[in-house]
Write a structure and sequence with these properties.
The structure holds two protein chains of two kinds. Chain A is an alpha+beta fold. Chain A folds into three domains: 72 residues, no CATH class; 222 residues, no CATH class; 32 residues. Chain A contains 13 helices and four strands. Classes of the chains: A alpha+beta, B alpha/beta.
Chain lengths: 371, 197
């Protein structure tokens, strides 16, 4: 047996929890939830994505309670998620219907609908802006007013809805194979524990709720040589998707009666990954495959890394760790990995004593032997 | 006072859990059942059990009497899906069910698989009365010695239950409810014996 119940210490634990509250509030600054929601969008997006729960309010609350500690915030929100009843399932969404805020392609300069840069850090200088140390409300309002006036003068004749997919354009040319739609009911990894080999639906779910850092690092490893993937971002979109559910009392299942329940912001990536295949004449040919990445909020690095890992796992290859689904899927979950590492802090008094005991015995044995 | 779907079903759940871990123990949910104001075709304890156990993620089936009305009611209140006897996660047998109907439930319900024995059905059976004195003796996990119970009309289904539970871990768990809102559970591990006079 690895663990024994340790009794006592409850007073010390109570005091430790009190100390935690003290650390959070001792400066007597109330961190407003609205402030987190307004100014910490990137963090909220990550917490929502890793927790698999889309609620900006609850994510902000979790961040506040966890004092900005990501793994703790994700743990809190995941735990809350598990208590929620699941009464409806949304209809399947076609991401073609996304209301696009940003959409770029690294594969083609001219894409139908155009490159839409939107909001991104990609084009900034990464210099600290010390003016933010004393940002004033007046300055904000002034900037916003000017911005509004500027945008009134722009032509603004951009279509942002129902933009065609870059890949659709290539499929028309016959450069990409068209696959039949897979209508199989996805397996839910939050209801049934994963069994290997996994289905693609399970892989995509685990990847999209994976810890941002872990997904990014492993995606990077796959490109750097611990995998065999060399992707190009075919299309990256950030935008809002409308969600609908079937009208609960409607037995006809008619989509006309669907109820609109709101929208979610997502980042979606389709990577083009060249692979070498042999044709009928045994000549080497290059074909393209798509790696797919999607996650809640705006988190482009994670979505791109996910698309790399998706393709790597789709073509499993035991020679490379990043193509091994057990290696990737079992280790990228925030709650699972941080939970296991944290458990090392739990009392291991008995296991460690038994290890010490055997070391002592062996040492004693060698000393006697030398005599 | 109307039923509090959150806290009353929590209490109902604790009651069922307790009875399931201590087979033969009879508890009472009348405090909750008395609050049921909906006009229903089943016992109010059955309705409380349905609110406690059913949700969008599970399926159920009703046997005996006007099943259609009950099914509609359960769907409306819990969003669970009504399914055939062979696939249902929960099977409700009303007191109107005939002996043949009850036996056919035991012969047709899910009993799980060897890898996933938990994927079996739970049978919720309505009966006239349950009491702790009688000629039925229970033994098995959760019972220190033996438990003495009597269940109305148990001769209808006792043999069918023994058959379906003969290959542990496969089998079905049962929740028994009576007209006085008593609850008793017979998990698949409980062995029944009729006391010889």
């Amino acid at each position: 047996m690895a663990y024994v119940a340790v009794k006592g210490g409850s007073e010390a634990i109570e005091e430790s929890i009190k100390r935690l509250t003290f650390e959070r509030i001792h400066t007597q600054q109330v961190l407003e939830i609205e402030a987190i929601m307004a100014g910490m969008q990137g963090m909220i997006d990550q917490v929502m994505s890793e927790s698999s729960l889309y609620s900006e309010l609850l994510a902000a609350l979790a961040i506040k309670q966890a004092q900005g500690n990501m793994e703790e915030a994700v743990f809190l929100l995941r735990a809350h998620r598990s208590t929620l009843p699941r009464n409806y399932y949304t209809r399947v969404i076609e991401t073609d219907n996304m209301f696009v805020e940003r959409r770029i392609s690294a594969s083609f300069k001219d894409i139908p609908g155009g490159q839409i840069l939107g909001a991104s850090y990609d084009y900034t200088h990464r210099l600290m802006d010390f003016n933010l140390l004393s940002e004033s409300k007046e300055a904000m309002q002034k900037w916003l007013l000017e911005y509004e006036q500027e945008s009134q003068h722009s032509s603004g004749a951009l279509t942002l809805q129902s933009l065609p997919k870059v890949v659709a354009f290539l499929q028309k040319e016959g450069l990409f194979p068209t696959y039949e739609e897979d209508q199989a009911e996805p397996l839910d990894v939050t209801k049934r524990s994963v069994q290997f080999p996994t289905t693609r639906s399970e892989r995509l779910q685990i990847l999209t709720r994976g810890q941002t850092g872990a997904v990014t690092s492993l995606g990077y490893a796959a490109i750097r040589g611990y995998g065999a993937v060399h992707p190009t971002v075919g299309e990256l979109r950030v935008g809002k998707l409308p969600l609908t559910v079937a009208y609960p009392m409607d037995r006809t299942n008619d989509e006309e009666n669907d109820l609109y329940i709101g929208q979610i912001k997502v980042t979606e990536v389709e990577s083009f990954i060249p692979i070498t295949t042999k044709n009928e004449k045994n000549e080497e040919e290059i074909e393209f495959e798509i790696g797919y990445g999607i996650c809640y909020g705006q988190n482009e690095t994670k979505a791109i890394a996910m698309s790399i890992l998706d393709q790597a796992l789709e073509n499993g290859n035991q020679d490379y760790p990043t193509h091994d689904e057990e290696f990737i899927l079992m280790h990228i979950d925030s709650v699972e990995s941080t939970g296991f590492i944290s458990h090392l802090k739990l009392p291991h008094y008995v296991t460690f004593q038994s290890k010490l005991d055997s070391v002592r015995k062996i040492k004693k044995g060698t000393i006697q032997h030398e005599k | 006072m109307a039923m509090d779907v959150v806290h009353d079903t929590q209490k109902g759940y604790r009651t069922i859990l307790h009875c399931m871990s201590r087979p033969g123990t009879i508890e009472n949910v009348s405090e909750i059942a008395d609050k049921v104001t909906v006009s229903i075709e089943c016992l109010s304890a059955t309705f409380v059990t349905s609110l406690t156990l059913l949700d969008r993620e599970v399926s159920f089936s009703v046997v005996g009497g006007d099943t259609k009305k009950m099914e509609e009611l359960f769907v409306a209140y819990t969003m669970a899906t009504s399914a055939s006897l062979k696939t249902a996660d929960y099977v409700f047998i009303t007191k109107q069910a005939s002996k043949e109907q009850i036996i056919s439930v035991f012969q047709n319900v899910k009993t799980g698989t060897l890898i996933n024995p938990q994927q079996s059905a739970t049978i919720i059976l309505e009966t006239e009365y349950l009491s702790n004195s009688g000629n039925l003796l229970l033994t098995g996990p959760g019972i220190e010695d033996t438990e003495e119970v009597s269940i109305a009309n148990n001769e209808y289904w006792l043999e069918a239950r023994n058959n379906v539970n003969s290959e542990y871990p496969l089998g079905v768990d049962m929740i028994l409810l009576d007209e006085f809102a008593h609850v008793m559970c017979l998990p698949r591990t409980t062995v029944t014996k009729i006391r010889e006079v």
